Amino acid sequence: MRQRVIAGVGVLALIGLVFALNFYRLPVVALSPGPMEDVLARLKVEGSRVYDSEGKLYLTSVGVDDNVRFYEALLDMANRDVELVPRDQLYPDEQDSSEIDRENAALMDRSKETATVVALREVGYDIEPSGVEVTQVVSGAPADGKLRRGDRIAEVDGRAVGSTEEVRKAITRHEVGERVRFRVDRDKTEKTVAVKAEEVDGQPRVGILLRDLFPELPVKVTVETENNIGGPSAGLMFTLSIIDKLTAEDLTAGRRIAGTGAIDLDGRVGAVGGVAEKLIAVDRQGVDTFLIPAENCDSVRGRVPDGLRLVKVSTIKEALRFLRDPKVAATAPGC
Q1: Is-contact 142 196, C-beta < 8 A?
Q2: Which CATH number is 306's domain given?
Q3: Number of helices (H), then strands (E), in the chain
Q4: Alpha-carbon distance 93 to 43, whole Å?
Q5: Which of 44, 142, 211, 219 could form a disulfide with 48 if both were Cys (CB 3.0 to 4.6 A apart)?
Q6: What is the pLDDT of residues 189-211, one digit of tens each?
Q7: What does 153-168 look like in DSSP terms, one character per residue?
Q8: Residue 133 DSSP SS3
Q9: Residue 137: pLDDT band with limits 50, 70, 90
Q10: How far apart are CA 267 and CA 11, in angstroms?
Q11: What's the rounded Cα separation, in Å, for the pair 266 and 214?
Q12: In this structure, what CATH number is given to the domain that contains residue 176?
């Protein structure tokens, strides 16, 4: 009788454990292939003639599940298309998914603006920044508690500045330990702030991230993406699509081309996350060419689907040479 009671208690405990594990959220995030969208079909242009294309230019994305339970993780581990990564890799400083979603939406909007500026410059427009805004203050850095996100920097050390490059040069003129004086516009008031420069990577820094502000652009471009896609990783494909729309030459030449990569105002293509999952999505859609940031090549070695050609690019000009010149396309380096 006693043994039956012990056995019954053990079964109940096991059932309780199994039930509890089903509700235990692991400190991981599951990455999976996300949707693709033809950017050319999502573009709207006002203020310029536009041209049609025979092919397609796809942005790619990653599905993110930040609510992974124990048994879901077991299934994900058995699925070669899903990658589990530590939660703090995507959600630092204990940020929740809603905060990250807002940040990703802002990064997407900024990526569209940057892509528009780069594209307009590429097709012949003279576009210069008209101001500088603080986008982030590094926690614990000298600027922490003195400068704020959203501050617009008007002067550094008494000199007017109109671009991030001018601010950078003004800061690097200082010796480590010297104070950099900023005049900023904050909440419709002017503030003067002094920040001590510290050494980072051998250079004086104050611990702020900046972005250039631009006046109303001569051509208005909007990109209406679906599927709640965010982040900066579509910058390359946004830029190429805008250039394609604004030029008579069909960059696609009837091809279906996918890609990923952040874009900066100098036309450099930067690394992004989740590229291996994007390759799976591209392969499923039957697309056989993928533009990949050169910096991402190492992360996908051994994970490229058969028959999918990777073309590594470091700048927008490299991507354009691949699209425009058949000889370049034939010999373009892969990963």
Answers
A1: yes
A2: 3.30.230.10
A3: 10, 20
A4: 36
A5: 219
A6: 999 999 999 999 899 999 999 99
A7: EEEETTEE--SHHHHH
A8: strand
A9: very high
A10: 63
A11: 15
A12: 2.30.42.10
